[in-house]
């Protein structure tokens, strides 16, 4: 029986490869720009309640905690939580954090009430049933709150295999290659994520492509450029089509309407009109 991926066996290597690379730096930079915008929209509360679902070592949520917000970080991997505790202590953020060893699907048992902001970053691609997990997680967002979702983009995975000439692999359905232990187990189709959010009544606030071209570059035989140029160009292109939809990851963030909001009223009116028809 398939199980959600647990990184107990690769925690340190995973953290090093994800965050200690150019790829990680690009990811952190463009996603943090979105997070800053989200926090501006949630500025009604001086101290937000944040859930970092499957948060690993909490790279993004630690920056949020440093601004004075309270974070609950949950992860399936006890080794990841150990690394997170070390980083959190090193950065003087212990008072801002609560660490929970739990599958995401059971997180509602560990929080007292829905939260202002949920981070769900680079987790869906490791789950057996990613859309069902996302659907359940949405119930833990309070009215007016926001969910921030970053996922491994199916379209980016397809494009990468196309330009590498892996046509047979594509024809086989791009099965997961176990020898690449740090490569996500599957690509997530963006439309399925967007549909999940909108069907739950959330309003999509924005979308960002994460590494829209960096991963497609042949770094050993290209023209002259610096990493700073790459980072600058990624920031310029990441919210523009068609580049956004080709990102290796996509970051989408959506808000749950306040009770009695315009969106909710429109939905109720539409349902009422259907009944009359």
UniProtKB/TrEMBL annotation:
The EC number(s) this enzyme carries: 2.1.1.-
Superkingdom to which the source organism belongs: Bacteria
Keyword annotations from UniProtKB, A to Z: Methyltransferase, S-adenosyl-L-methionine, Transferase, tRNA processing
Recorded catalytic activity of this chain's protein: 5-carboxymethoxyuridine(34) in tRNA + S-adenosyl-L-methionine = 5-methoxycarbonylmethoxyuridine(34) in tRNA + S-adenosyl-L-homocysteine
UniProt GO molecular function: tRNA (5-carboxymethoxyuridine(34)-5-O)-methyltransferase activity
Broad class of enzyme this protein falls into: transferase
InterPro entries: Cmo5U_methylTrfase, Methyltransf_12, SAM-dependent_MTases_sf
CDD domains: AdoMet_MTases
Chain sites annotated for binding S-adenosyl-L-methionine: 27, 54-55, 75, 121
Single biological process term from Gene Ontology: tRNA modification
Gene3D superfamilies per the UniProt record, alphabetical: Vaccinia Virus protein VP39 (3.40.50.150)
Domain Methyltransferase type: from-to ranges: 51-147
S-adenosyl-L-methionine as UniProt keyword: yes
Family, per entry: Belongs to the class I-like SAM-binding methyltransferase superfamily. CmoM family.
Functional summary from the UniProt entry: Catalyzes the methylation of 5-carboxymethoxyuridine (cmo5U) to form 5-methoxycarbonylmethoxyuridine (mcmo5U) at position 34 in tRNAs.
PANTHER family: TRANS-ACONITATE 2-METHYLTRANSFERASE, TRANS-ACONITATE 2-METHYLTRANSFERASE-RELATED
NCBIfam families referenced in this protein's UniProt entry, alphabetically: PRK11036.1
Protein name as annotated: tRNA 5-carboxymethoxyuridine methyltransferase
Organism, scientific name: Photobacterium phosphoreum
